[in-house]
Design a protein that fits this description.
Blueprint: E1 3-9, H1 19-34, E2 40-45, E3 48-53, H2 60-68, E4 73-82, H3 86-103, E5 106-113, H4 122-136, E6 141-142, E7 149-155, E8 160-163, E9 167-171, E10 180-184, H5 190-200, E11 204-211, H6 218-235, E12 239-244, H7 246-255, H8 261-280, E13 285-286, H9 299-306, E14 313-314, H10 322-332, H11 335-338, H12 345-348, H13 360-367, H14 372-381, E15 384-387
Parallel strand pairs: 5-6, 5-7, 10-11, 10-13, 11-12, 13-14
Antiparallel strand pairs: 1-3, 1-4, 2-3, 4-8, 4-9, 7-8, 12-15
Helix pairs in contact: 3-4, 5-6, 5-10, 7-8, 8-9, 8-14
This protein binds adenosine-5'-triphosphate and magnesium ion.
């Protein structure tokens, strides 16, 4: 109960007039993530956010885990509260950070005094506590320039706090400050990473998944829902719009040249994503495309898919190598699920010789006989919305 979490706010402190909005969003996001960990008080003061448990039932370890995934936070530390008294702070440092004090070779004490009525200056407090710790731990010497360990003492209005160096936070901007986008989520490695990268820039997401039952199985759909769920600690709660895609694929296979199939299919994905975006008020479409990775990921193919919508298409992994994407996938926890072997709707219908550089004129000619509006309407009407 006398332990709290301190969060250092990131870029948002720079945003001047928008700062209040940024902080409010961050606080709201933090509260939502903490809901299942017990009752917490959350507030900001001087570009620090305080997360204070309100009862002994609070699960501090889970709260800490949740806060490490909160976009908008650059650093975080667990701190122990104690009386505003130099000896109490010294004793708290020994009790709370004893392991770290025993393991380090060099250290320093850094003090902050928000309560100006405190009888010692910051320097006096640091010198006193530092001197006592130096005596007590023979392994330690003081190094004020490059210490391995810094003991932070903060004297605030109602209590003093003792903590070690902050650990790196998730960075980015609070989800929601930049509006909303729809993200095309397949079962692969790239699209969960792309979604995460855009959420990190403060964008709330709705997911769209194209489902080709019975060519792809219920398990394949479940895998996508699992991936969406793995993203929620970062992105917040998500809606997955599951679009029935089989009829469109069969129609394309029946009436269009095989070598154009992939790009034609992607144009339909984009048209449907555009409709979902308009329905929910989203301002962009996110994909996990990376240049040159497969036939449909050339500049020409991107132009052709982009031509059916005027929404910006955000492709955050466009210039990344597979290894770089995999590294992020591991970091965010989606990799192991992404590599489970279930078929994707694109692999089921892959043409033997896809055209690498389709022209718009060819694609439009191939689509001329189709009733595009009716095909898109039918797919959109069949959308199943799943909350994860
Ligand atoms: P990923 O690893 O994300 O599946 P990929 O390298 O397999 O990507 P493609 O299959 O060409 O590449 O898909 C490119 C992008 O198109 C995906 O990153 C995703 O954003 C979108 N996409 C592909 N298939 C689907 C699908 N069935 N449902 C929703 N979006 C899809
Ligand atoms: Mg794929």
């Amino acid at each position: 109960m006398n332990e709290i979490i301190l969060l250092k706010l990131g870029e948002l402190v720079l945003k001047g007039l928008n700062r209040r909005m940024f902080e409010d969003k961050l606080i709201a996001n933090a509260r939502r993530r903490l809901q299942s960990c017990g009752k917490f008080k959350v507030y900001t003061k001087q570009s620090t956010m305080y997360v204070e448990p309100q009862s002994d039932e609070c699960d501090m370890d889970r709260a800490w885990e949740a806060m490490t995934r909160l976009f908008g936070v650059v650093g975080l530390s667990r701190a122990r509260a104690c009386e505003k008294d130099a000896d109490a702070m010294l004793q708290t440092a020994i009790d709370y950070l004893g392991d770290k004090l025993s393991a380090a070779r060099t250290f320093k004490v850094e003090s902050k005094r928000a309560d100006k009525t405190f009888p010692m200056t910051s320097i006096q407090l640091s010198q006193y506590v530092g001197g006592e710790l130096d005596d007590k731990y023979p392994n330690l010497t003081v190094d004020v320039h490059h210490p391995e360990l810094t003991i932070h003492l903060e004297v605030r209005d109602y209590a003093a706090y003792v903590h070690a160096d902050p650990e790196p936070g998730a960075g980015g901007l609070p989800v929601g400050v930049g509006g909303r986008a729809v993200s095309l989520l397949s079962g692969g490695i790239d699209s969960p990473v792309a979604s995460w990268m855009i959420a990190k820039r403060g964008i709330a997401l709705d997911m769209v998944h194209f489902f080709s039952y019975p060519y792809t199985s219920e398990e394949a759909k479940q895998k996508v829902l699992d991936l969406a769920k793995l993203l929620t600690p970062w992105c917040g709660r998500l809606v997955v719009h599951v679009v029935p895609f089989t009829a469109i694929q069969e129609e394309l296979r029946r009436s269009c040249p095989e070598e154009l199939f992939t790009v034609l299919m992607r144009r339909f994905m984009m048209r449907i994503a555009d409709r979902v975006a308009r329905r929910i008020g989203a301002g962009a479409v996110v994909t996990g495309e990376s240049l040159g990775q497969v036939a449909s990921q050339t500049m020409e193919a991107m132009r052709a898919t982009g031509a059916v919508t005027d929404l910006p298409i955000l492709r955050p992994v466009v210039g990344m190598d597979k290894e770089e994407i995999v590294r992020i996938a591991r970091h965010i926890g989606t990799f192991e699920t992404s590599i489970l072997p279930y078929e994707d709707c694109c692999t089921v219908f892959t043409p033997r010789h896809p055209r690498l550089r389709p022209t718009l004129a060819e694609l439009e000619a191939a689509e001329a006989a189709l009733d595009i509006g009716a095909m898109v309407d039918a797919a959109v009407d069949g959308i199943q919305r799943v909350k994860v």
